[in-house]
Fold this protein.
Amino acid sequence: MNASTIAAIATPPGHGGIGIVRLSGPQSLDIALSVFRIKRNAPFSDVDGKGSPGSFVPQSRYLYYGVVVDPDSLHIIDEALFTVMRAPHSYTGEDVVEIQSHAGPVALARILGAVLRKGAQPAGPGEFTRRAFLNGRIDLTQAEAVADLISARSEKAAEIAAVQVSGKLKRVIQALQATLHDMLTYIEAAIDFPDEVGQEIDPDTIAFRIDRELVQKLKSLMLSADQLRCLRDGIKMIIIGAPNVGKSSLMNRLLEKERAIVTDIPGTTRDFIEDAFLMNGMPVVVTDTAGIHETVDPVEQIGIDKAWAHISGADILLLTMDVGRAADAAAMGLFEKLSDTRKQIIVVLNKTDLPVDRQVFHLPGSWSENPKVEVVRVSALHNQGVAELKSLIAEMVIRSSVVREDGILINLRHKSCMETALGALENARHGLAQNMPFELIAIDLYAARDALSEITGESAKEDILDSIFSTFCIGK
Ligand code: GDP
């Protein structure tokens, strides 16, 4: 348990109905009471039996009405409600006090200043949640879910984060750890008492259990990690195509605003323009890239290289073609390279407003046969076909958002720990197949167990904790 007491404004900055200053730590009640005056006729009790006659000892989880005063001048800062949540039944597991006042930035800063003067330390980002984690109130997956919930950009993401806050992933990981523990106990008995237990252990049975009870379960957990990432971060869509095919015009149509610069000078979008719109409650992040083509201009080449780097992180590729231009070798080459990424491609045939005799583009057979390719005809100039394009995107968004039925959210950190655990389990299975000594098998199983403990935070290193909690806001 931490010896210091921290304090912060827990509500967002700005003017509002209610603002909260929160304290956590062993001194939080004493400090808060030194700046709070309860209204005389309000009920109070001395349930703890520690208060001297006339002193105010608030009961845990009751709300008291009074005023906050400046500890030096004793001038009233604001009217306030006061509540204490006694350890260990609080968010952090420590004594927590919340003072609710009017949410003026000056009033809140004065209340915070008052408790800091009385000995509280200013809380760092996420420090309340970090204390909750360190005091065993929540595990690391739940702490991460709190951050996800706060920063959720779509309703679905918020829904899933809320499930995770309740500890769903934690329980799944704990079950896997229990299985590993069980196997390790068994194997260690065989190592310690080879004569009694060693003979009875069948390496094939252990290998089978590793596969069925651990490897398969981990793999199925990781299966939809990419889809779930979309829910949190949004679908990433990227507009690609040769210069002047109408990429910027398309971007503006998708966003329904003038965001990208439209010109008839090829190569004007040298860097990226990124923006997002909501589709079925899901954020779709669109990036307009530099036109991809052969160039000798070094600046333009940098833009093209960057576009390729972006493509690898995208979920949907919008390959834009100008129907007024026949598919040349460059277009064919670009398509080949894009289909090698195995990502979902939408071929957007633009400028369909051109007179029919000028529409010289014919869809190559290899494009239409590719199951990962959809084709839409639009005129970005006249805003035609854009609604159809959007509904196609919406369909893909829905398709990619099949949330695991158990609603478990797996982030990249969890995924990488799971990959480490899987690697160690595969090594153990390989070792068993080769009849390696149980000592070596145990080492692999311990490595898998450590990797899983990193997910829940039992064995997470300080720098990992720092990087997770630094993304929180102050006061959370
Ligand atoms: P980018 O270089 O691919 O981003 O292309 P722009 O969006 O800057 O457009 C290039 C040129 O094509 C501009 O002159 C646009 O007005 C024109 N353009 C874009 N979309 C259409 C369209 O649907 N039909 C016609 N006729 N012209 C278009």
Remarks:
- Residues 241, 243-249, 262-264, 269, 291, 350-351, 353-354, 379-381 surround guanosine-5'-diphosphate (CB under 6 Å).
- DSSP finds 16 helices and 13 strands in the chain.
